[in-house]
Amino acid sequence: MTIRLADSRPHRAVITYGTFDRFDLAQARQLERICQLGTTIIVGVSTDELAARKGERPGARYAVRAAMIRQFPGVDTVIPETGWEQRVMDLLAYDIDLLVVGFGCRSRCDHLADLCEVQYLDGNVRAVPSASRASKVEQPMPLTLTTWEPARPQSSKPAANQPRIVTRERLAAAYAV
Asked: Any idea where the Cytidyltransferase-like domain is (predicted)?
């Protein structure tokens, strides 16, 4: 008899993006941690064209990288990432609750906090310096998630002059065909 334990993951949709060129232990641990954050996991894998625009030269083609991520336990859907502007549409189309990105993408994802919760991965792998060793040894560090919260403007201007906050409803109406 097999006993199934209740799934302790929060019931929410999570999305993340990346090139996933060198899929090593650190990236596997990141993806494993992301899979624990929700019940529906969507991974956007950068296309070869987007990787080239980002200045990356993947060793494997998009189809190979996407197939590798598709096989990862816990990943439900793999989609092609074709550009930064795609993220807004993906958040709306897939009804995303949580966007998880690397800390280096912080400035490119801050504006999305009005559409869903945004968390940044911090502390992927660190180099351990050693004076007695000629080379550095990489050891995985525990992942730390930080949540970005938008700063509310502190101004005495009337509300009519304040910038409009982007919401799911406004974006859906703006992109409705």
From this structure: 15-102
